[in-house]
């Protein structure tokens, strides 16, 4: 039987295998500088961090080690957001296999994070270039791009990793999963579980449903809210059958629009589905 | 830095990512009952066996454990032959990073295998349905399909795993790698190293060169020597540019011709290239 860390690794691999996942790298779509094979290497490199999470290490530490390994390829940021979701989920799955995947177990874990976890989280940004927007000016001192230099501010203000996530919850879909007990991850896991056929195909379907449900925050950051809202409408059209998902995929890749947060949540959903016994 | 076990896992993932690899599953080609995602799960499942090899466990034991994990997906045999090549290579890479990947280190390791290793090898056949041909009648008692029931014969005759490989060297390209110190794996690793561009693409090129160089023994077993020889000619035509590799891929998939041994050797070559520092 696969361990939680192995299921997390498989979730990363299946996420990028599912196709089409409009706008994201998948096994039929890639960018010149961000290729399918970078995601393979990123998933292999994440192992150490995922194992630490499984062994009960602190969330921040496990995440930071995961990112170090993930970054050992030339594509840059492949699975930063996905790991931020997977690490507490792997911790939850290893606590007690019976109740582990109830959302309140995960909620307890993220709410119990410490200032130390927050410092490790900031440190992770030093290993890889993550696309983030400018914070509001009053949060300048907490700009994640400051990396380890933000440490003194975090300690001074006593901010835990959960607190840091709360500060971004309005602008970052991954942070919102943290603060709201992973609602979209669990919902998409239900879809994957209820669906049939190849698991990677189910993941691609779940991705499209997530994309049609609300604006992807990574698109909002990189482009603007209007672009993200347009993508929601296009994704709904793809779900309705008005346009082919493959057509939408070509369109978004061409425009360089990359719904990264939606892919991250898809990976989290795949992990939950695998832990519940969905089999490949 | 990735460990040898991690590089082996990445080699398995890159092998199936490279496309087109005519006749084999790759990220653009799959069969209904043997899909891309089965290879993802197979690679994740192989971890335990690859780690054992890295820690210096016996080759047979590490292989058998790798196969158990690999088989935990619904596609059946995905990477049996590849693991049979990778396990001694991972052992070699962990012995002494300096000299590890000289072919004589690997040769020492396979020549030092024991009767116990042979028994574990036979046991591995109980976990997954591997396509093998009928042995010559004098070797009936050693038919691998007898699994653990062959154990008494192996012990009686004092056959090591290397001896077993020698018995198949004429009919099995993986066994031949074992008995001849992995010449094709090392040669293809040189090609991958000398090539440029995405590593998965280089692997696909190396695969085609291997395929054009000599008949794939898995095709000989499943079909016949004539079919295997035709594939050599078609692969050479693809190399010469007379036919598109993509066309050959469609042709072989349609005919259900699967050069499995060539894929196994490609995975071994990828591992060697990664260990030598080729980076993704």
TrEMBL record, chains A, B:
* GO molecular function terms listed in the Swiss-Prot or TrEMBL record: ATP binding; triphosphoribosyl-dephospho-CoA synthase activity
**InterPro entries per record:** CitG
Q: Which PANTHER family match?
A: CITG FAMILY PROTEIN (PTHR42280)
Protein name listed in UniProt? Triphosphoribosyl-dephospho-CoA synthase
